[in-house]
Design brief:
The complex is a heterodimer.
Chain A (H helix, E strand, L loop, with lengths): L2 H13 L2 H4 L13 H11 L3 E6 L2 E7 H9 L18 E2 L4 H9 L5 E5 L5 E6 H17 L2 H11 L1 H4 L6 E8 L9 H12 L4 H21 L4 E8 L2 E8 L7 H4 L9 H5 L7 H8 L2 E6 L5 E8 L16
Helix pairs in contact in A: 9-10, 10-13
Chain B lengths: L2 H7 L3 E4 L11 E3 L3 H7 L5 E4 L4 H10 L3 E4 L7 H10 L2 E4 L4 H10 L16
Parallel strand pairs in B: 2-3, 3-4, 4-5
Antiparallel strand pairs in B: 1-5
Helix pairs in contact in B: 2-3, 3-4
Classes of the chains: A alpha+beta, B alpha/beta.
Chain lengths: 320, 123
Amino acid sequence: MTTPEITKVQELIYTTKVETVMAPNVVVIEPSMSMADVKELMRSKRITGVPVLDGDRIVGIVSMTDVIDAMEKGRLTAPVADNMTREVSTISKDASLTEALNNLGREGFARLPVVDGDGKLVGIVTTGTVVRALLREMDVSFQKKEAEKLQTYRASHIFEDIVSDDTSVILRYIVDDKDFANAGKASSMIKKSLQRLGFLPPMVRRVAVAVYEAEMNLVIHTDVGGEITVEIRRDRLMVSAVDHGPGIDDLQQVLQPGFSTAPEWIRDMGFGAGMGLANIKRCSDTMRLLSEPGAGTRLDIVFVFSENVPGATRSEGKKS
Amino acid sequence: MKVREVVDILSGRIIVDNHDLDEEVPRGGAADLMSDVLAFGTEGMVLMTGLTNPQVVRTAEMAGINVIVIVRDKTPPPETLELARESGITIINTGYTMYEACGRLFKAGLPGLGQVKMRDNSW
């Protein structure tokens, strides 16, 4: 097995929940059943252990060892209630696979009944069900190029894995002026980063278009280039494009759609139509332009997520 | 419409190949103004353009476009081709003009965006 596969299995073990790896249709018995009947049941169903239920409540478990004990002691006609193991270790369906594997290894438990929040039996986990589920998940992962999805998963869970009152991820990019060969490179990297972080395509597109317009402004209009900063929070994404270039004389004028100071050669490249800021405004939830002649320019763009999942849904933010 | 059909209908030549020719493209659009592409481009559409600079590829990438048709048989500079190869974008060359390239694809059933309504009167 090559290294990426090992990582994938490890990833699956850490990220998979018990619910995914359990066998859902559990064979159960009542306390009044005879051990002889249990023996036949286990033989015919080809199982090695069976939980004992009194109504909804798990009161014990009968394993192969209990059956053998009953046979040796000539107690096959006795009821389950007198022969079962009363100490049952259960596991929550929301627990991690890691926890299940730890418990399965400990104290010789070969199976763990799985319970929901109300303590009701919903499945059973054995090393066999775990191995089968892992193989199934890996198979699925190969088919769906799960490798990419897992990477996305890992990156997107930074907001849950890193504990703080308010976590944010900050990405910084330097943009050189008049460097047309590389213009758009920062936007391209931002787009890829957002995809890795698990943003949905509509949100990725909105941010990518706005950032690209802002980046082109830095390339075209500043003499010194500038910096793009993207701050990703749980509930919003903030982009700042800052430069120490010539600044803007008339802020009202540049916000007019169609107003442009771009030279002819820029227009020949398909830019400089005076639509950049209007386009950014349309894609974002709020946009703020600060500038003074000689003191540089700062453009702040905010995208608000309507749920706590980064970029999960397109927010119906303010449109002016 | 399949990418293969786009190539056939335009008597085109694939100069950067990043596609399965059986892949479907949902619609087409044309612009020489990159801001128009950013404003009206839609995911997966075929972009017809007369521009050949690398920014066409960048713009397409940002707008989620991955098939570009260059009209009037213009040959893009190597930087454009290189960037397209890196970004997973297919470039097709055709001898038709922008008008005729669009007309042929539209007539063959590749839809456009319909009427575009701007919500905020920006331009």
